[in-house]
């Protein structure tokens, strides 16, 4: 007996939809086994991971706070990936957006600048992110450079730029030389939605972006163009679509969204510019984009789900003393199963019985 | 899904906040937030040793929890908040970058006691504590200069913050007492914990001619590299002798246990107050690992120096201190630099051929 992967004649739309569900199911089964092995009650552990965070107001807010930047970045990335271009440097665009917006916050710090500061910061963040993303896009279009490598390497450049600024020119003069800017003024801070919590306007902005992306992809010619260029480049060329223009466009949009997420994160939950403002959001968003099937609503759900594993993982550490490594294993296994199940979209599994003689066949 | 979640959040908030706040238990719940993994064999490990000490000391009277690998960015505030909401009444946040998040959470939970390591902001319910690590660095500087055959020391810096700068300066001031022409090579790795990068930096330093390696990062990687290459090295944060039995000269170890015991006791007794603690060799918050792999005269010099620092007769930053430009640094503390000058140190002393990044 033999297991064979056989290519399907066309993509299975059913599998495309249920694949993440199967993956999550398999993850839960695997994790349960793991919990038993480390001597924890799997039901209780899964409860802490997935249910507890959804049952109190505070955790729900935190879920949205954590998911907002992931969703924003992943939406942008999904446009690139749909068009079959590979922006891997969202982390760098996130940081550059944060830096550009912070520039205004630092310059106006302590002055009586008006309410225009925050909107201008957000705009600056988005523009800077877009321009930064256009560097790899331009190199690809003009010189044929790999956008994967260029965008990835620009992450380190952005990281060091931020590092330089907070250690040098932008350092808080009253901060004992520690590498951080002064705390932003209230007019340079993203407003909270509720007093006492951490949920900020950024979560609403993320929702608006999800809706906008859904409209763009589902209802506009540009959205159609993006999908056609990605799925059938030759057909797109015959159709008169310029793939170069699309590379620039999708990179600019995804850079702008990453930059916006960056400045919102800095002007929101962090409150000042410092090194380490991103715990790898730009990279985690790649997982979110694929887990969400490059679909805006899917990405929203995937972003919330990934945020849930972070927050649940933390509560598991507190409530059940489950080590952090288990949470990491959890996320790793999830991605593994998602990719594995995705292969079923294009392939089907067939069981091949050993060949028998014709005489046996009659039996 | 998100909108429902948001609506639910709004509803719950409207009907009254604080649902998540746990009911106070009989036991004192003590929480810890760690920057690295408990198995880093360095900074976080030493805090973990401190936690285990309070568990041993107070047994059933307390319940402890820790969160490890909590990054210093936007996540840390949530982690600290989660601990407060889970009913922890005393929370230790053990890295500089947790300062502002700790302060924010402390303001929201006025009844919870917070202890922040290595920072400078405090509040009614937030203490700060740190070690005078430069005292140990001074002893290391003397030993290094005695033991280096080439007269070149290698120093792996994490971030150019005052604590690290003061460690480099203390090393150099001491080393120059032994060998006025001593050289120091510095590599900044921009991380607290990354064994790969730390090892690369150690190799680069050895390639540049250094024969004694010291570091201000949290893993034993540099010790292991020095050990392989037959150089000498110092442990950092914890006694790393098992990673270099023939390599380690000594280590500046952080001994948080006694402080944690004292603070937990105060919390149990109801006498806890917000304080600023800056303790060194004398208070045993900074402890030197055994002096090994050196001749007896060097060992004796190290021990005498340690005793003199404890007795207060030797001050590592005794004036005059010359800046990199050769001009004397203003002496604000009478016969030595004052604590503020050390805690905010942002200059190199004379003889260091390097530039502070970002300056």
Automatic annotation (TrEMBL), chain A:
Citing just one GO molecular function, the answer is: transmembrane transporter activity
Query: What would be one Pfam family of this protein?
Result: BPD_transp_2
- Give the record's membrane topology: Multi-pass membrane protein
Q: Which domain of life is it from?
A: Bacteria
Annotated membrane-spanning segments are 12-37, 67-86, 113-135, 147-166, 199-217, 246-264, 276-292, 299-317, 329-347
- CDD domains for the chain: TM_PBP1_transp_TpRbsC_like
User: Which compartments is it annotated to reside in?
Assistant: Cell membrane
Keyword annotations for this protein, in alphabetical order, are: Cell membrane, Membrane, Transmembrane, Transmembrane helix
What GO terms fall under cellular component here? plasma membrane
Q: Which PANTHER family match?
A: ABC TRANSPORTER, PERMEASE PROTEIN, GUANOSINE ABC TRANSPORTER PERMEASE PROTEIN NUPP
Protein name as it appears in the record: Sugar ABC transporter permease
TrEMBL record, chain B:
Keywords assigned? Signal
**Which cellular component terms (GO) are annotated to the entry?**
plasma membrane
Q: Which Pfam families match?
A: Bmp
Q: Which residues form the signal peptide?
A: 1-24
Q: Which SUPFAM superfamilies match?
A: Periplasmic binding protein-like I
Q: Which part of the chain is the ABC transporter substrate-binding protein PnrA-like domain?
A: 28-304
Q: Where, if anywhere, are coiled coils annotated?
A: none
Give yes or no: UniProt keyword RNA-binding: no
Q: Does the keyword Cell division apply?
A: no
PANTHER family tied to this protein: ABC TRANSPORTER SUBSTRATE-BINDING PROTEIN
Name recorded for this polypeptide: BMP family ABC transporter substrate-binding protein
Q: Which organism is it from?
A: Tardiphaga robiniae
Organism classification: Bacteria, Pseudomonadati, Pseudomonadota, Alphaproteobacteria, Hyphomicrobiales
